[in-house]
Design brief:
By secondary structure, the chain is α+β, with helices and mostly antiparallel strands. It has helices at 42-48, 57-68, 72-88; strands spanning 13-14, 19-23, 28-33, 36-39, 92-93. Helices cover 38% and strands 20% of the residues. Helix 2 packs across helix 3.
């Protein structure tokens, strides 16, 4: 998958009507939207919990790197590709 859709300077936010919610039935976080339910694993939840409509992608990556005690360059591609896939699924928008 190409990460051309977003850059490190992109500020992401949830599409209108889409939100991150803990689903007690599934015992995990999900993204809910009109006619949409996306189940997230721990990594996806960590990434999506940093999306606030104010922080750019580089800030999100830096925050995750600090949280998980890894080098930002080690997670940059994975985070960018995940966020790009969420933009393509119309969960997030730049």
């Amino acid at each position: 998958m190409s990460s051309q859709l977003i850059t490190s300077a992109t500020i992401l936010q949830f599409e209108s009507g889409v939100r991150l919610k803990h689903d007690a039935v599934r015992s995990r976080y999900v993204v809910l939207g009109p006619e949409m339910l996306v189940e997230l694993n721990e990594t996806g939840t960590a990434i999506m919990s940093k999306v606030d409509g104010e922080a750019d992608l580089q800030t999100v990556i830096q925050s995750l790197a600090e949280q998980f005690q890894v080098e930002p360059r080690d997670i940059e591609m994975d985070v960018t590709e995940f966020c790009t896939s969420m933009v393509m699924r119309r969960v997030l928008m730049p």
